[in-house]
Design brief:
With 215 residues, this protein is mainly α. 59% of the residues lie in helices and 2% in strands. It is globular.
Length: 215
C-alpha cells in the first residue's frame, strides 16, 4: 500500500539521487572535522564543520539539508567519531556543544529556505544572507543558551565568549557563498534544482547543458 498523505510544502518523496546527495553532504561535514578543532575561551571547539552545514542547506535545500545533518548526528549518536577531534557517542548531546549540534539541523533548513526562496536559482547575495542567518545566527541562537545551561555560566557571559567564533564563521560564509555561486555555473547537478522544475521554467522549453529546464 502506498502512502498517499500530502507532503509539507516544498518537500517531495526521496529518490535515489536525493539519498546519494544527503549521504555525500553528510560525509563532507564529517571530513571537515578531520583536522580537529581548538578552544579559546570556552568548552565549545572551533571547527571547520559549520562550513559543511552552510553548504548542506545551500546545495540541498531546506528539507534535504536538514536531513543530511540529522543523518550525520544520528551516526554520531550511534558512536561513530564523526565530529571534530574524533568525538562521537551520545555524550556529546549532553555537553556544552549540544545546542550547536542541534542548531545544525535547524540552521541547514533555514539556509535552504533563504538560498532557494521561491524555488529560485541561488544567487550570491541570497546565498550569503542565508548562510549568515541560518549558519550563524540560528546556530548561535540555539547553541548559546544550551551552552550557558550546561556550563552554568550567565547567558550574557556565554554570548560574549561566543563572539570568538564570529570572525571564523564569517570567513566560512564567504567561502560557502563562493563555492555555491561557482557550482551554480559550473556544475548545477550538485544541487537539488527546484528552480529548474517550476512551471515557469518548464513552459519556456529551454534547457541547460544538463538537460534541465531553465527560464
Amino acid at each position: 500500500m502506498t502512502d498517499s498523505r500530502p507532503l509539507p510544502r516544498g518537500a517531495r518523496r526521496l529518490d535515489a539521487t536525493d539519498v546519494a546527495r544527503v549521504a555525500v553532504v553528510a560525509a563532507i561535514v564529517a571530513v571537515l572535522g578531520l583536522p580537529g578543532g581548538f578552544s579559546l575561551f570556552g568548552a565549545v571547539p572551533i571547527t571547520a564543520q559549520t562550513l559543511g552545514v552552510m553548504l548542506a542547506g545551500a546545495l540541498l535545500g531546506p528539507w534535504l539539508g536538514a536531513l543530511s545533518m540529522a543523518v550525520l548526528l544520528a551516526l554520531v549518536a550511534a558512536g561513530l567519531p564523526l565530529l571534530a577531534g574524533g568525538r562521537g557517542g551520545i555524550g556529546v548531546f549532553v555537553g556544552p556543544s549540544a545546542g550547536y549540534l542541534f542548531g545544525w539541523i535547524v540552521g541547514a533548513f533555514v539556509i535552504g529556505l533563504i538560498v532557494h526562496w521561491g524555488s529560485r536559482k541561488p544567487v550570491a547575495w541570497r546565498t550569503f544572507t542565508g548562510v549568515i542567518v541560518g549558519g550563524i545566527l540560528v546556530v548561535y541562537a540555539i547553541g548559546i543558551p544550551v551552552q550557558s545551561l550546561v556550563t552554568r555560566l550567565p547567558l550574557a557571559e556565554t554570548a560574549l565568549t561566543s563572539l570568538v567564533f564570529v570572525p571564523g564563521d564569517l570567513v566560512k560564509a564567504v567561502i560557502a557563498t563562493a563555492v555555491v555561486t561557482t557550482l551554480v555555473r559550473a556544475y548545477p547537478r550538485a544541487f537539488r534544482r527546484t528552480w529548474a522544475t517550476t512551471p515557469a521554467t518548464v513552459a519556456t522549453g529551454k534547457r541547460d547543458r544538463d538537460g534541465a529546464p531553465v527560464a
